[in-house]
Amino acid sequence: MSQSVAFTAAFADLEPKERYKLLCASVTPRPIALVTCVSTEGVVNAAPFSFFNVFSEDPALIVLGLQHRPGNTPKDTSRNIAAAGAFVVNLVDEALAEAMNICAIDFPPEVSEIDAAGLSLLPGVTVPVPRIAEAPFALECRKHSAMSFSPTRELLIGEVVRIHAREGLVDPRTLRVSMDGYKPVGRMFGDGYSRQNDRFDLRRGTYAEWVAERG
Q1: In this predicted model, what pLDDT tens digit does every residue of 66-101 receive, in sequence order?
Q2: 3-class secondary structure, 144
Q3: Does 31-213 carry CATH code 3.10.20.310?
């Protein structure tokens, strides 16, 4: 079934802010990583990222899109991870959404977003970085590698070395996750976020089944 295209644009003809607007509004919802890291002065920083996803299971890798300030000045998260080589990805659910939004405020480096958002910490087990106690899931990560694509954009690859889950979210026998208990939040665009209240299943069949159904 073909459909006419009502809008098309070459990205070479668009300004970066226009590309950002279209990408963020079309690639949705995106998972949110509330990243904790520690500065050389011992301040725990927490910042949300929606340019984020899981990348591989063997090795276990996640990817983060980091943005630097104009003039190629690293933000707290980029600077802290580069120095320490470790961080924690705290996943965001409905209960954590308001605090996550507070953590998005551009606090100065000496101010901990954890304190500002009224959150609490638990110590890391495999990495020397604390996780957010209120997070439904937390992924302890070591920095694997990073690639710079422009003065303001860096792709960080982290290796997941340990996972934590709130009680009742993971069946220890089957490792299945309770989505009803999880209630993850997705990032839309602008000030928009989404709940995952209306889910549905689509079973992926085999090619042989597809052929048989049409035979």
Answers
A1: 988 777 678 889 999 999 999 999 999 999 999 999
A2: strand
A3: no
